[in-house]
Amino acid sequence: MSILDRSIVVSFEVNGKPVELITAPNRTLVEVLREDLGLTGVKQGCDDSNCGVCTVIMDGKAVKSCCVLIGQAEGTKITTIEGLEGENGLHPIQQAFIDHFAIQCGYCTPGMILSAKALLDENPNATEEDIREALHGNICRCTGYKKIVEAIEAARDEINAQA
Amino acid sequence: MKMKFEKYFRPATLDEALKLVQEYGADCKIVAGGTDVVIRLRSQMLKVQTIVDISAIPELKEVKVTEDKAVIGAALDLMTLSKLPELKNSQWAIIAECAGHVSSTQVRNRATMGGNNVNASPSADTTPGLLISDAVVNVIGPDGARDIAINEFFTGPGKTVLKQGEIVVSFTLPAQDDRCEAAYKKFSIRGDTDIAIVNVGVRLGLNEDGTVKKARVALGGVAPTSMRAVAVEEYLVGKTITEDVIEEAATIARDSIKPISDQRASAEYRKEMVYVYVKHMIREAVAKIG
Known about the structure:
heterodimer; A: alpha+beta; Ubiquitin-like (UB roll); DNA polymerase, domain 1; 6 helices; globular; B: alpha+beta; Uridine Diphospho-n-acetylenolpyruvylglucosamine Reductase, domain 2; Uridine Diphospho-n-acetylenolpyruvylglucosamine Reductase, domain 3; Enolase-like, domain 1; 5-stranded antiparallel sheet; 4-stranded antiparallel sheet
């Protein structure tokens, strides 16, 4: 079978822009986002659905893009870390991560921020407990979660104050 | 490692999906959420040439909750299921509760009831809930539809009675008695994100006089499949729940299992945890009945 015979056409939206690509089907969303679309803010870690660094927001929900087949992205709206910055600069969650020093090596950070965004979009008044539950699938191996949770709580308050 | 499959189909109807799984036979794997299948495709534990993705079939995502039964679509994501008000406030609330214990937010956003059970992991979180609710697996295949009792569905780790070309459509939960409540608990090192070392589900129905009318006890992580602890159930029926009865039921549960020792826990530890958790779950079910 030739490569063309087994290719599929997939259309979806990434960070507000339509994408249409012809690709072999045996690829995951994280591979396509990084290799074809150059969105290397989406990290590839365990590739085993454990670590959460590949987290993206798909139709409003945080998902691990290492276990989404590219064909399953058809018709969806995807947000990666590259899509968070607005006209007025960094997203409040991004800014809060900087202000609260919620970053060490930074590898888990895009996934952490996207999990936090999906949570706050759904539940603007998320408590510390809600935040910790939402981040359970995102692993930081540098140190811990205290600063990260503090940053998200601060971002929550900032977003609610702006609203 | 790269996944090796060559063909990918995303049927929009169940009929179309059935034709595809028949056409490609043993060389095809059904995927819904992908949280397990994609990983096994990449590790090449699964070597198929064709993928049939059933996640875009609307009828597989339906949930119907009425007075006399609930029907849960096999391909609905577990996050939606775990938060569904009509299920959480029903006699089958335990199904939503178990769904909420499956792994992390991101995984629950994709994983499905069908996948969590067809996967046939002995420590699956949703299976004890189905076992103690006498669920029926509704399957469709080349020879038409058939219903399989959940306690006859699993045959071993990763193995079920499903035949080639069959697709799980939904799970039917029959009506439960009044004064009947269920409880579920998993034991794992790192909370829900982690695989259960053991898990225990208990459903108790009480008569007006307080004696046990019906008992269901399900254990996970202690046998090749999730299992009903029938000896415990039989012991409990007719009893008034006292601390002595709870102690005896937990002892029977511990003595009726032959778990394995592996990297997660020793056999002795699993037996001890089952003993403790059966006690907790009986107390919790009774407390819920009030």
